[in-house]
Amino acid sequence: MLAKNTIVAVTFLVLLSLGHSASATVGFKPAQSYAMGTAPEMAAVADFNTDGKPDFATANFNANNLSIRLGDNLGGFSSPAVPEISAGATPRGIAIGDFNRDGKQDLAAANYGSGNISIRLGNNAGGFVPAATPEVSADTQPQAVAIGDFNGDGRQDFAAVNNGAASASIRLGSCSVLSAAGVTVAGRVRTATGEGIRNARVSMTDQQGVTRTSVTNAFGYYSFTDVTVGGSYVVGVESRRFHYSTRIVQVTDTLVDVDFTPME
Ligand SMILES: [Ca+2]
Ligand SMILES: [Ca+2]
Ligand SMILES: [Ca+2]
Fold this sequence. Notes:
single chain; mainly beta; 5-stranded antiparallel β-sheet; 4-stranded antiparallel β-sheet; disordered N terminus; binds calcium ion
């Protein structure tokens, strides 16, 4: 049996895509190998330090912990200040959600040996701490966990699949932050020279796929009121005259500068 915190070099190949279109030849080339905790079994990708560059987390079976590696958007990864995060016994599965609705990505790990799910809350800087209830019971030998809102209350829940019990455990999130009053998301739609565009249709879609729309006023301003905090939203603009890139916004408080200028 390996020591709990033993780190061994395992081959974790990062593969870079070479293809760009449907007709292109698709290939991958080795970029780098990284040391992880012992016997990493599963990886999940998210942007844990909110620098816009994808990072990844692994569940390390024999080390009873989780590893975070921060991406540089060039195919390279580095360790954050707190390299390994404790989990339950022999974690096998890992998934990403925002369980406390603070807009920061959290982790759920399926602990095969201890029959539970570890919840670790992210700080948006690459670090994680245990939730108030750090481990949530599942059944015998949970080996994977998936996140969804199964009862439609806007709080993230999980389904753990239990290898040893031939069952799935559904656990409904009970975060209390949801009842907080909604905030406002607003901004301005402009021409390339900075003038406001009237009657542009702005859409805002939440993580459940629910879309709201707003039309800009004579000066190009739009707003959405009573927006639920803690989630990310896709905001897009439809205009007859210009094309605009969609934006993904994390809403933790009122935003008044979600502005749009046309693509070149
Ligand atoms: Ca990142
Ligand atoms: Ca969170
Ligand atoms: Ca829910």
